[in-house]
């Protein structure tokens, strides 16, 4: 299998801790040949998105520039016919059957490695 799910929200980390944990998980996944990391970070309890949910896209832009990751897709951007999603599915076939990826889900993100 070339995908992995990382349940970040179980750890209840701070933003700084969360981003470090994700980076470590990416490095481990690379060594194991994982192509996509589904990060379950949760949305936040205040109804407008938590700090981790807000910080991840900014972190991803920098990580992509540094070539740490290939791409980043928010759960809210996972639209079946979007060009970004179609490319992700070509890159990592196991994303096609993931049941959590068929719905608008602000509590997850996909990181292509």
Report what the structure shows:
This protein has a single domain, classed as 2-Layer Sandwich (Ribosomal Protein S8, Chain: A, domain 1). The protein is globular. The chain has a four-stranded mixed β-sheet, with helices on both faces. It is α+β, with helices and mostly antiparallel strands and 113 residues long. It is built from three helices and four strands, in the order E-H-E-H-E-H-E.
What characteristics describe this protein?
113 residues; alpha+beta; Ribosomal Protein S8, Chain: A, domain 1; four-stranded mixed sheet; 3 helices
- Count of domains: 1
CATH fold description = Ribosomal Protein S8, Chain: A, domain 1
H-E string: EHEHEHE
Q: What's the alpha carbon Rg, rounded to whole Å?
A: 13 Å
Strand content: 15-25%
How is the topology of this model organized?
Elements: E1 3-6, H1 15-31, E2 36-40, H2 51-65, E3 71-74, H3 83-91, E4 108-112
Concise structural overview:
This protein is an alpha+beta fold and about 110 residues long.
